[in-house]
Design brief:
TIM Barrel, alpha/beta, 441 residues, 11% strand
Length: 441
Amino acid sequence: MITLGQKEFFSGINQIKFEGLESDNPMAFRWYDENRVVGGKTMKDHLRFACAYWHSFVGNGGDPFGGPTHVFPWDAKADAVERAKDKMDAAFEFITKMNIPYYCFHDVDVVDYGDDINENDRRLQALVDYAKQKQAESGVKLLWGTANLFSHKRYMNGAATNPDFHVLAHGAAQVKAALDATIALGGENYVFWGGREGYMSLLNTNMKREQEHLAKFLHTAKDYARKQGFKGTFFIEPKPCEPTKHQYDYDAATVSGFLQKYDLLGDFKLNLEVNHATLAGHSFQHELQVAADSGLLGSIDANRGDLQNGWDTDQFPTDINEITESMLIILQAGGFQGGGINFDAKIRRNSTDPADLFYAHIGGMDTFARGLITADNILQKSDFTKVRTDRYASYDSGKGKEFEEGKLSLEDLREYAIQQGEPAAISGRQEYLENTINRYI
């Protein structure tokens, strides 16, 4: 979306369109046809793609061993608000050329923050007013907003879990402004990610008290948002470590237990990230299944790690097997509860052409579209679900059913084992199911 007189930041790149499998055009979708109906819904409604404001328009390619390699033309102006408006022009130009229906942001990515709360609020409000115009002109919507409570030096020991109440109050002020911005922009959800809500050493940490403070902080923020009329869902995004040694939102199961313990289940669900799952020693499919089984599958951040690197590399998703297996779980769970697929991924340090950002998103969107089509075909045309159902058939009748209904004592189970003798070996048919997925891919 480029208005009259506005600079074009991605010149020479036109609207990205669906051209199908016969196309050799690298600037076109081969699989993602937003209007194609799969399993009773359009691809657009199934996938609900979102662009991550931070990686795409703020991430500069810098790493612990070297400075920025991406020099953005929208970062030229001296005034923070005017510079941020140029960045938003670039963002909406890219998002609309990609035909992505949503975006997500951290507050400090929308506009640079300083140390003055009132000045930060003024800057953010100016960009909220500008974003309202951009959304109205383009039809792009806000999937979720969030506050960055981990980058500033004041948050070196966390925000909601900081041992210093003064720091917690600063975090609350920042969350209030981010919530106000999300509500004003019609954001459908709000995310909390505890980047430093954890500990580096238990020697100086009161873990019980910190987790109680985190729960109280979440309740306080939730109550404020509801009072302001926010109807959306709050998400917690699990991650086991990095930058802290141990984070309290370690994985899906940990967060599920936390939400239950502190009476937050009614308002909160999970936003799961692929690379965070692998850092926790899980597959992404595992995390999805844990969330789905708990009724907490809210949204996902799509990316991948590197098998040779043990940290959060945030690369764009390209593994069709992983995404197909993931879409099987998402489809069987009935889809996302409020969220969608946010590309929390960044182009590589040496990917320095403006076109690289397009190639990355095209590849990611096509991978998920292909995974969706493949997963639906597997569910509709193969015996995939039957194999798993049959594996548990012994619980569908007789003594197995009585056990599930709580009708058998330990003595009853012992007597049954004696009567039936040694169980037969029953194959799990893992290789067969793996081949089924590859066949449909």
